[in-house]
Amino acid sequence: MRKNKILIVDDEEDLCHIMQINLETSGYDADVAYSAEEALSKISGTTPSEKTNGELSLPYDLLLLDVMMPGMSGFELAAQLKSDSRYAMMPIIFLTAKDSLDDTLNGFSLGADDYVSKPFSVKEVLARVKAVIGRSHQHTPARASTLSFHGLTMYHEQKKVEIDGVDAAFTRTEFELLWLLLSNRNVVFSRQQLIEKVWPKDVIVTGRTIDVNINRLRKKIGHYAPCIATRQGFGYFFKEDEWR
After folding, report:
1. Which candidate, 69, 83, 71, places its Cα nearest to that of 13?
2. CA-to-CA distance for 67 and 138, rounded, in angstroms?
3. Of the candidates 5, 64, 76, 84, which has an alpha carbon nearest to the alpha carbon of residue 37?
4. 9 pairs with which residues across the strands?
């Protein structure tokens, strides 16, 4: 059985070494990079292989990513990866000393799957890793594998979005958010309902995080943006009759 491959990105070599040992002891294949630039080189230098369902495998099943590093920051690396359709679905857990609310919101707005503040316990990180990788391997039944609305098409098995025939880079959260709204057209979801249905139970998410992700979603779907409508005082919904 193939081991899940994790890339640890941190300029603290001792921390990388400790995490690598613990991850490998827990059954993962762990790799390290001591800068965002080195991580980007390793990620882009990996040739993707094709899975049995036609989906291309990601270079890594998960990134454990520090934020404050010399040169390119972890936030900058995440933004670059999430804007590239080849890597947008790659899960990211930020491990960082930047633990203010704004920093956490920024991390989630970039598409992070989790955010762990330093100092942390290795046991906690391993639990978060297991949870994120478990979620990333979940599949939707074949009966709901594709959704379409005019030129907007979503493929759940391939985790792919096409807008008028062109691939668009979506983070995992953005994808699941759009999938929920598109598969329940004209149904209004409150911010709390979106949190409960899209975000994992062990992650703290605020209404502001929802608003940030909705705005990013609107930008990514281009001229279909008006379809993501706001019902003032209630929440958000996919408005079918908004399209002309």
Report:
1. 69
2. 28
3. 76
4. 33, 65
